[in-house]
Structures are given as structure tokens and as C-alpha cells.
Amino acid sequence: MRRRAEGLPLEQVLGWAEFLGLRIAVEPGVFVPRRRTELLAREAIDAARAAAGPEPLVVDLCCGSGAVGAAVLAAVPAAVVHAADIDAAAVRCARRNLPPERVHAGDLGRALPAALRGRVDVLAVNAPYVPTARIPLMPPEARDHEPATALDGGDDGLDLHRRVAAAAPALLAPGGVLLIETSTEQAAGTAAAMTRHGLLPHTTEDPDVAGTVVRGSTR
């Protein structure tokens, strides 16, 4: 009660968050998975099931706790799921929710083993997309207790989306898809970044969870 009254997010107090029916381990200082991100997870699950091979290769990039990757693995047990994050606390936490040897530390695609390049069927990304000027307006649970690297998306919130879109074509397998969580107001900018790098964008929204995902297809 004292820790919650001091502003620590409830999920960090409890040590877990509910996500698509799963109990995801969450540690202090780690981004708490949001309900709106369940749309990203559902899109990744559908894409993994539609992949050509029997063991689809899925990457949870900017993984935080690894909630999206864990949801994919629970729904598609044959999937080979890798994850990566630049934040050390997130990597440590994600290794509790995913096979630890498949969670990598580093900056975006550069964190992934070279053997994955050109083979990824589903690249699911929850990169930060809050514009820098809006960080002070966020609830204190987020701005005071979650890492800035998981929140700050630059001046317009799309800095990381542009970098991911630029890196994705070299990571994706033929027929692979890039999925990026964004906001309704930023979806056009996220889609434009994908178009600029040869991907065909399509936006999906789920008002029930206030989720928006832009899908970039290689075909």
C-alpha cells in the first residue's frame, strides 16, 4: 500500500501484469505492458499463423517485458520468438517471460544475431512514440517509474518508427510483415515511413482497447 501510494505502478508493486490472459512478469523500472498493445500482439499472432513455414520466426523489438513475444509463443507454440531491447532492466525482465537465450540487448535490429537477417516472418515493434514535449503530461506512474527510452519518441514521436522502417527490409523474409504500434493521429506518419522503404502499409484500429497498429507488408 505504501509503495502504491508513493506512485509506483500497481503492476510493478505486484510483480506482474495481465496481458492477453497471460501473467507477465514486470519489474520496477520496466515499461508496463498496456492493454492497447494487445492489438499488436493479436496482429502478430495472426501473422505468425499465416506465415509460410511451420516454425515462423517472430521478433519482438523494443520488447520491454517481452509481453508481445510471450503472447505469440503462447498462441503459436511452434514459433521461434526472439526479442530485443536497449534497456538492461527490460532485457533482464524479458528473459523471465521468454526463452532467455533468445532475448538480446542492444539498439533495434543491431541487437539481433546476424543469422536472423532476411529470415524474420513477423517483426512486431512497440517502439516509443510519445512526442518529447508530451512526456511531462503523462501520468506520474509512467513518467517517474518507466524508462525514458520506452516513452520518448522524439519531436513528433516517430523517430524510432522511421529507424525501424529503414531497418526492416533487411530483416524481413520474403512475404514477411512489419507491425508497429502507433496512435491514431500518428498512423499516417508511421505508414509514410514504411512506404518510404518499400513496404505496403495498412492501418488497423481497435477502439475497444484504444489500439492502433500499422502493418507493412513486403508483398
From TrEMBL:
Keywords for the protein's UniProt record, in alphabetical order: Methyltransferase, S-adenosyl-L-methionine, Transferase
EC number: 2.1.1.297
Region ranges (Disordered): 200-219
Residue ranges of domain Methyltransferase small in the record: 55-129
Catalytic activity: L-glutaminyl-[peptide chain release factor] + S-adenosyl-L-methionine = N(5)-methyl-L-glutaminyl-[peptide chain release factor] + S-adenosyl-L-homocysteine + H(+)
UniProt feature coiled coil, ranges: none
Superkingdom as given in the UniProt entry: Bacteria
Signal peptide (from-to): none
Protein name: peptide chain release factor N(5)-glutamine methyltransferase
Organism ancestry: Bacteria, Bacillati, Actinomycetota, Actinomycetes, Pseudonocardiales
